[in-house]
Amino acid sequence: MGAGITLPAPRSIDGTDQDFYFIPVYGLLKLRSTSEEVAPYLTCHVGYNFFNSNRKYDASGAISFDEDIYWAGGIGVIFNNQLQFELLYTSNNGELKVPGYRFDVEYTKTTKYNVRGILKKIVLDYV
């Protein structure tokens, strides 16, 4: 069990100079086998997503961004407590409000990690 936060780089919208980003804060659960040599595991993240933009969308401030749920699920394997491979599917959710309209926004991705020295793992997500 643990907790985490991901600090992503902004995502751009094609054909514009406008960016948006999600900052998930989450609890995490990792179910791991007790093997020392090869330890497969399942991981799950559940938390709250801060949804924001570079504010170039609307100078008047009429457009707003609302936070929503963040979740992720994945599998991985740890070799000799030294090398870790992980495949993680993430779903970031939010809501965009324009006067008179509401739009659900979902951003999903699959990330592959290859991390050495797993005792301290910091992931800066810029993909």
Keywords for this structure?
127 residues; mainly beta; Porin; seven-stranded antiparallel beta sheet; 7 strands; disordered C terminus
Describe the structure.
This protein is mostly beta strands and 127 residues long. The protein has a single domain (2-116), classed as Porin (Beta Barrel), CATH 2.40.160. The chain has no helices and 7 strands. Strands 1, 2, 3, 4, 5, 6 and 7 form a 7-stranded antiparallel sheet that branches. Strand 2 and strand 3 (19-32) form a beta hairpin.
- In percent, how helical is the residue content? under 10%
Structure class? mainly beta
| Total E-strand runs | 7
Q: Give the overall shape, derived from the CA principal axes.
A: elongated
CATH architecture annotation:
Beta Barrel
CATH class: Mainly Beta
How many structural domains does the protein architecture include?
1
- Kindly report the average pLDDT value: 78
Strands, helices and their partners?
Layout: E1 2-5, E2 11-12, E3 19-32, E4 38-53, E5 64-79, E6 83-98, E7 101-116
Task: Summarize this structure briefly.
The chain has 127 residues and is mainly beta. The protein has strands at 2-5, 11-12, 19-32, 38-53, 64-79, 83-98, 101-116.
